[in-house]
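Researcher: I'd like a candidate sequence for this fold, 568 residues long. If you have to choose between options at a position, lean toward the conservative one.
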């Protein structure tokens, strides 16, 4: 009774602090107590399922159904245990400094207690390691600069976090009076360049040329402001400067959708520059100057390892470098890109609504590499933009989904089979169709070579389209096209804008009537084939398919108007 458990984990021995009736604080082992509670809870025995649960904890990046969800690393003090580089530290050589106590407003009641700072004596040294060690209020240790380094000379503290973090706050707790003027900077490129985070001064306009406590709007969310808060000389010790990265920023409540603030809170390094000491005005007498210096007991930087919502922790690699343990098929130090072969949609930061995981390209097991194409992604209705590279097994196409020239599809095998495409025999056989070549029984191409009123008027359809993919189906090739503009169509033709199918005989393609290439835009004109039941267009050697030219748009619009006026 009266015990406070440090950790409720029943499988680890933890210390508990119990206050006895006499008021004496002692430490006891609570393993036995917690073990008994566990046995009673499981009705006489250990629940082995609990051991299994501890061995394989659930993945924070997956929900209870195994679907990807946003995950973020734990909130930490990113400065803890890190090295801080200080431009000035007392004790090299040994020097005297004095602390001020008493009523700071009354000169007669102020007392000076003087000490020696000596880096060669452990009890008298004040190194920068004290800034980021374990902060114990009952045993305060302080870094301290040399006495009286006054404006225009600065004192600088530089902290490297080791990787990109998304910061929530930067705090400094002082053993001396707080500075009259100071600046907090951040770097996003490991100290190569610096951006101001916050200015502090009792004279913002005079010292930094900035207004005091300027209003933050959406137009200046990524700008540092100046404030006179935390710049008083009181308290003489124990004062704190606390900077919140998102406080007062209008888009903070919609952080997921604000790239500006996501960039604003990102940092790899923090630099603090002390510009001017706070004094009582007696520094003109050299005897009092050793009372003025900078001393900080705790330098804390609160935030999370930046992983863009695609990792729940950061780990050290073999070289000791900190990086995200990326999930959702992402890669990079900050999970800032898709891992190889997962380029079917563009990389995005995870949000509370959507994990935005990277999707593997659909190459039907015939390719190991692919790339992303934004134009194809938009044409697909933002469903997929992956383009397979170096298709194997005699396949071709954006998804390696049809047979390359000289091969035909074996319908007895799925397209994912490595032998789905067979070589076309050189001579026709009863089991394979004959494929005539140009100049060897090919019909004369009758498609139009230019846009004219006659060609427009006799056509059953006139469209502008892009060829996306193709698939060989026996004697026919099925193309997937994206119809951009419909200039003319007969009422019986079911044709609309967007993705459509188009069929052409293999023999006509071999004769280059029409001549078609993937990824190109064409003007297509022809008559409607009423004898087939296929969904989409059917082209043959009489159809027109010529590469699109932008100047044709106006001419075709004019022909449209003439058709409506009955001039066709």
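Model: Candidate sequence:
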């Amino acid at each position: 009774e009266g015990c406070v458990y440090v950790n409720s984990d029943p499988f680890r021995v933890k210390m508990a602090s119990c206050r006895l009736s006499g008021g004496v604080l002692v430490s006891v082992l609570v393993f036995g107590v917690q073990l008994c509670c566990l046995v009673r809870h499981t009705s006489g025995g250990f629940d082995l399922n609990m051991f299994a649960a501890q061995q394989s904890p659930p993945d924070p990046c997956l929900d209870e159904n195994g679907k990807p969800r946003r995950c973020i690393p734990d909130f930490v003090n990113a400065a803890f245990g890190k090295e801080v580089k200080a431009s000035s530290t007392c004790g090299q050589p040994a020097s005297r400094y004095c602390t001020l106590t008493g009523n700071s407003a009354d000169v007669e009641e102020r007392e000076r207690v003087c000490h020696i700072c000596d880096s060669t004596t452990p009890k008298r040294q004040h190194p920068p390691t004290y800034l980021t060690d374990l902060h114990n209020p009952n045993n305060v240790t302080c870094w301290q600069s040399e006495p009286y380094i006054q404006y225009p000379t600065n004192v600088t503290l530089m902290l490297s976090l080791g990787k990109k973090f998304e910061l929530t706050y930067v705090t400094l707790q002082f053993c001396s009076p707080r500075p009259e003027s100071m600046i907090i900077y951040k770097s996003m490129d490991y100290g190569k360049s610096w951006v101001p985070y916050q200015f502090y001064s009792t004279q913002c306009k005079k010292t930094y040329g900035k207004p005091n406590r300027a209003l933050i709007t959406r137009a200046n969310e990524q700008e540092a402001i100046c404030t006179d808060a935390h710049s008083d000389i009181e308290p003489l010790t124990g004062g704190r400067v606390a900077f919140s990265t998102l406080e007062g920023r209008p888009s903070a409540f919609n952080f997921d959708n604000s790239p500006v603030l996501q960039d604003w809170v990102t940092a790899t390094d923090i630099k603090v520059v002390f510009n001017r000491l706070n004094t009582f005005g007696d520094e003109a007498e050299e005897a009092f100057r050793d009372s003025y210096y900078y001393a900080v007991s705790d330098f804390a930087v609160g935030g999370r390892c930046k992983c863009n919502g695609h990792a729940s922790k950061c780990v050290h690699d073999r070289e000791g470098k900190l990086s995200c343990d990326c999930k959702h098929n992402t890669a990079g130090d900050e999970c800032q890109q898709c891992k190889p072969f997962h380029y079917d949609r563009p990389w995005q930061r995870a949000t509370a609504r959507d994990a935005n995981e990277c999707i593997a390209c659909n190459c039907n097991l015939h390719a190991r590499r692919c790339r992303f194409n934004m134009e194809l992604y938009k044409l697909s209705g933002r469903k997929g933009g992956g383009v397979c590279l170096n298709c194997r097994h005699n396949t071709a196409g954006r998804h390696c989904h049809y047979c390359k020239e000289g091969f035909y599809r074996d319908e007895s095998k799925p397209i994912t089979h490595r032998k789905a495409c067979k070589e076309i025999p050189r001579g026709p056989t009863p089991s394979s169709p004959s494929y005539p070549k140009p100049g060897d029984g090919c019909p004369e191409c009758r498609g139009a070579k230019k846009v004219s009123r006659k060609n427009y008027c006799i056509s059953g359809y006139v469209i502008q389209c892009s060829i996306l993919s193709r698939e060989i189906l026996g004697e026919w090739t099925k193309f997937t096209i994206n119809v951009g503009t419909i200039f003319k169509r007969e009422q019986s033709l079911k044709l609309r804008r967007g993705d459509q199918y188009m069929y052409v005989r293999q023999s006509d393609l071999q004769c280059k009537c029409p001549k078609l290439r993937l990824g190109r835009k064409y003007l297509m004109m022809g008559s409607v084939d009423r004898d087939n039941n296929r969904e989409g267009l059917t082209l043959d050697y009489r159809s027109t398919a010529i590469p699109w030219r932008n100047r044709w748009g106006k001419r075709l619009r004019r022909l449209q108007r003439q058709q409506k006026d009955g001039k066709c």
